[in-house]
């Protein structure tokens, strides 16, 4: 597998340990669990920028470059790429640190979040 980057970009948002309950039938960490961690990180970054509630409306393609094993430290990094009237585009990277202490980029994707008002409908994102 080829390495995409040598170090993470963006701000660290989540760091967690992959646990046995997060595995697929092969014993690797389930891709859906990893995507959920990325969604949580994107939601956190978007909530701070939007000043309130947000919802995920789109995710671009993901490719998994390295497996995540039980016990690996998983770190999620976020970079805000752009802000529209009601939406925020965020680039999310997931990295793993295994027992050998090497860090590998696992996957990345661009998430699109929309600011949500009290009525449950899109609302404008305030200026920076």
Explain the layout of strands and helices.
Elements: E1 11-17, H1 31-50, E2 54-59, E3 73-83, E4 87-97, E5 103-115
Antiparallel strand pairs: 1-3, 2-5, 3-4, 4-5
Q: Fill in the CATH topology.
A: Thiol Ester Dehydrase, Chain A
Largest sheet: 5 strands, antiparallel
Order of helical and strand elements: EHEEEE
The proportion of residues in beta strands is 35-45%
| CATH class value | Alpha Beta
Rg over CA atoms: 15 Å
Helix content: 10-25%
The structural domain count equals: 1
> Order of strands across the biggest sheet?
1-3-4-5-2
The overall pLDDT, averaged over residues, is 94
Low-confidence stretches: none
Instruction: Give the second-level CATH assignment, the architecture.
Output: Roll
Would you identify the CATH H-level superfamily? Hotdog Thioesterase
The rounded distance between the terminal residues' Cα atoms is: 39 Å
Shape: elongated
Secondary structure category: alpha+beta
Per DSSP E runs of 2 or more residues, the count of β-strands stands at: 5
Determine the number of helices (DSSP H or I, runs of at least 4 residues): 1
